[in-house]
Design a protein that fits this description.
Layout: H1 11-14, H2 27-45, E1 55-65, E2 72-73, H3 83-93, E3 101-112, E4 115-127, E5 143-145, H4 157-163, H5 165-182
Antiparallel strand pairs: 1-2, 1-3, 3-4, 4-5
């Protein structure tokens, strides 16, 4: 998906092995914390492996449930302690509620040449009344995207990856990178 001339390297490939604490109160803050930590490390280290790196990006993702005032949001992964417990908590919290609407949201922070930009990708949907499907991870077995009658856990991975919040955020990142490369 990346434009020609853009090579994506993992943290491991550049030699960054530290754990990054997500202490932000929003997805935007956590995404920025992660990107800034890696960018600062690159600027400070300038080892041979990283001297040609001119940008970094990092993301944070959350499930925001309408009837729960946007919870779990930034605490999505650690809301109830485990993926299975998180799914069951979502089902339990919405028991008897008519409004099961929610959205998955991914925020990507790009730092390039010291300049910070953020983009996001959103997919709306609803929480199922029980789990369906074995595919995916996290909340996939309980998240039904708008326009579909199956959960992310039931949809083929290729389709899910095409319509997901992460895919949409990456598409926005690619747009920003393309725009920046034309300047």
């Amino acid at each position: 998906m990346m434009p020609a001339g853009v090579e994506v390297l993992s943290l491991h490939e550049i030699g960054f092995e530290a754990e990054i604490e997500e202490t932000g109160k929003t997805l935007e803050e956590n995404s920025l914390i992660k990107a800034k930590t890696v960018w600062d490390w690159i600027v400070e280290s300038r080892k041979s492996k990283v001297e040609s790196i001119d940008g970094v990006f990092a993301d944070d993702t959350g499930l925001e449930i309408d009837a729960l005032n946007g919870e779990p949001g930034v605490y999505t992964a650690r809301w109830a302690g485990s993926p299975a417990a998180n799914r069951q908590k979502a089902i339990r919290e919405l028991e008897g509620k008519e409004d099961r609407g929610c959205r998955f949201r991914t925020v990507i922070t790009l730092i390039r040449g010291g300049k910070v930009q953020q983009v996001e990708g959103i997919v709306r949907g609803r929480i199922a009344e029980q789990e369906f499907g074995e595919g995916g991870f996290g909340y996939d077995p309980v998240f039904i995207p708008e326009g579909y009658d199956k959960t992310f856990g039931e949809l083929p991975a290729e389709l899910k990856n095409h319509i997901s919040h992460r895919a949409r955020a990456i598409q926005e990142l690619v747009r920003v990178l393309n725009d920046g490369m034309m300047e």
